[in-house]
Design a protein that fits this description.
The complex is a heterodimer of chains A (384) and B (168).
Chain A (H helix, E strand, L loop, with lengths): L4 E12 L7 H16 L9 E5 L2 H4 L19 E4 L3 H13 L5 E9 L6 H6 L16 H14 L3 H14 L14 H5 L3 E3 L2 E2 L8 E10 H4 L7 E10 L13 H14 L4 H4 L2 E3 L5 H10 L8 H6 L16 H5 L6 H14 L12 E7 L6 E8 L2
Parallel strand pairs in A: 2-3, 2-4, 9-10
Antiparallel strand pairs in A: 1-7, 1-8, 4-7, 5-6, 8-11, 10-11
Chain B lengths: L14 H5 L19 H12 L3 E6 L4 E3 L15 E5 L2 E7 L2 E3 L5 E6 L1 E6 L7 E5 L13 E6 L12 E6 L1
Antiparallel strand pairs in B: 1-2, 1-3, 4-7, 4-9, 5-6, 7-8, 9-10
Classes of the chains: A alpha/beta (384), B mainly beta (168).
């Protein structure tokens, strides 16, 4: 097992449905201060490279990388912004450290979703402009198509998806940073309005604002910092064909590819037996189930059993989204992966408070960039 | 190597080719609306403009006053906790004379964007604004200028509460 690069500091601001008291820059600054304090590093002296993730279309500002250095302490230092999920940013920093370009790097991801007044239209612009956009569907029809095919192939029903909503939003009640904690009854979930059959409004995560900063370091430095290093032992990423016409709607081959890449590096042959917990994409409840299957953590034919038998609940063998996931913490746009990562780090450090697992050693984190993308990333993390 | 012009038989497209649908294309337009939270520092700055004041912030470590204000010093990464009232006069750091508007219309009376170092701020710190009431030929780097404000009842907490800066 490789122990070359570790996460040595985490900080976040949020998460809330709206954050009118802070500009996005001030929100990022709060997260950065906490991460640097957590890692006991000075960004002006110690951190050699910075990465942020942002999508210009969502920010409403072209060439958004111009707006990221100052609030991170990165002015006149090596810095770049990538259009990807936060986990892509983490992997970028990981590769820079592994290649010897730097020894300490910081990664930033944020969401100011409340400032985007036309988010469905922005999402619509991710569709093919000639073949798909003229049909003028609300973009969540893609989730409806995917959920329908997945339920058909897996023989699961809307009720199993509702149980995922119930689990994650209950988990969020134990997470002080999660704004959407709720102790729902199943019928309350199933009585919500339909969005795009079979997808219900309650099966979708709601947007939230927040900022996250993560500090990574080479092993030669990580061991001298105050917090227990959380080792990145496997990374993987993958995209499928963008075309809606060519996809395999009932499963997620790109998630499987990314996971296999990460498992190979971490020398994991049987992930279900060695991984203690998982924080995975649940932007829509059915996606958690699809992801668990694609990650080879639970076979598709055993997903129902994993729900009704309690396997993916906090007391089960494979707790999933103890943080509350995106259903409980909110859809943080390109910060979703880093939100899942924070929970994994807290669990592996033993700092997860009321939702702390007894002695976890290895955790998996997976993210997805949301509809209509097939963009995913996977991290495998381990403590000492 | 052949000297034959590869573009010899190329015919340019005309507007009519598009209007008569002889060329297949799809037109789309952007619906992208945003409402950015101004936050603490820029919120103070905009409230100051509404009150007819230019506010900066002071870094006790770097001993610098910057404008527009911010809550963190980008050079030492320490919090900037003091907002300070500055003068509404300053010096032209740099300027340009624009004969094309932002939406690409040619104009005969040019616009004059300028970075103005505000009196009371540290050297090199200023705001981007406009120069007015001046012959473009007279504008020069180092020129002393003063803000011309909108009437108080018309100010709304915007950078445009200052109409422009004029020569002192």
């Amino acid at each position: 097992m490789e122990k070359e690069v570790a996460i040595v500091g985490i900080g976040w601001e949020g998460f809330q449905p709206t954050t009118s008291h802070y500009s996005y820059k001030e929100m990022i600054y709060q997260a950065a201060q906490r991460a640097y304090h957590d890692a006991n590093v000075d960004p002006r002296k110690d951190i050699q490279s910075f990465v942020s993730v942002a999508e210009d279309f969502i920010e409403g500002t072209s060439i958004f990388d111009e707006y990221t250095p100052d609030q991170l302490g990165a002015a006149l230092k090596p810095m770049h912004t990538i259009t990807g999920d936060g986990l892509h940013g983490i992997i970028t920093a990981y590769l820079m450290i592994r290649s010897g370009l730097c020894q300490i790097a910081a990664v930033e991801a944020h969401s100011k979703a409340s400032n985007v007044r036309t988010l469905p239209q922005i999402t619509h612009y991710a569709l093919d402009p000639i073949l798909n956009r003229p049909l003028e569907y609300h973009p969540e029809f893609i989730a409806g198509l995917e959920m329908n095919r997945f339920l058909h192939e897996s023989q699961l029903t809307s009720e199993e998806c509702a149980l995922i909503v119930q689990k994650n939003r209950r988990n969020a009640l134990n997470n002080p940073s999660a704004p959407y904690g709720c102790d729902f009854h199943l019928d309350e979930i199933q009585q919500s309005e339909p969005i795009s059959y079979p997808l219900l409004e309650s099966h979708s995560s709601q947007t939230a604002d927040g900022a996250i900063v993560i500090v990574l370091a080479h092993h030669s430095i990580a061991k001298s910092l105050p917090k227990e290093p959380i080792w990145v032992i496997g990374v993987g990423w993958c995209n499928d064909a963008y075309a809606l016409e060519y996809r395999e709607w009932g499963h997620l081959p790109y998630v499987t590819q990314a996971a296999m890449m990460a498992y190979r590096q971490a020398q994991i042959r049987n992930p279900a037996s060695i991984i203690d917990f998982a924080e995975v994409d649940d932007l829509y409840a059915y996606r958690e189930l699809m992801s668990l299957s694609a990650l080879n953590l639970i076979p598709k034919t055993q997903l129902g059993e994993a729900i009704y038998g309690g396997k993916i609940y906090p007391e089960g063998d494979m707790p999933v989204n103890l943080s509350g996931g995106s259903l409980g913490m909110g859809n943080l746009l390109d910060a979703n992966g880093c939100a899942r990562l924070i929970e994994a780090v807290l669990q592996l450090r033993g700092e997860a408070g009321k939702r702390q697992l007894p002695s976890p050693h290895i955790g998996l984190v997976q993210s997805w960039r949301g509809i209509p993308t097939t963009s995913t990333a996977v991290l495998i993390l381990a403590n000492s | 190597m052949s000297a034959k012009n590869p573009y010899a038989n190329v015919v340019s497209l005309s507007e009519e080719d598009f209007s008569a649908a002889r060329v297949l294309f799809r037109h789309d337009k952007l619906i992208a609306n945003y409402a950015w939270d101004s936050g603490i520092a820029i919120g103070y700055f905009l409230a100051g403009l509404k009150a007819g004041q230019i506010l900066g912030s002071y870094c006790a470590k770097c001993r610098k006053t910057v404008v527009p204000p911010r809550i963190v010093c980008e050079w030492c990464f320490r919090p900037m906790q003091r907002f300070v009232k500055l003068s509404d006069s300053g010096t032209v750091n740099t300027f340009s004379i624009c004969y094309v508007t932002w939406d690409v219309r040619r104009i005969s009376e040019p616009e004059i964007p300028a970075v103005i170092e505000i009196d009371g701020a540290s050297e090199g710190n200023g705001i981007l604004h406009k120069l007015g009431e001046i012959d473009p030929q007279e504008v020069h780097i180092g020129m002393r200028v003063q803000a011309v404000w909108k009437p108080p009842e018309e100010r709304c907490g915007s950078i445009t509460d200052i109409l422009y800066f004029r020569k002192v």
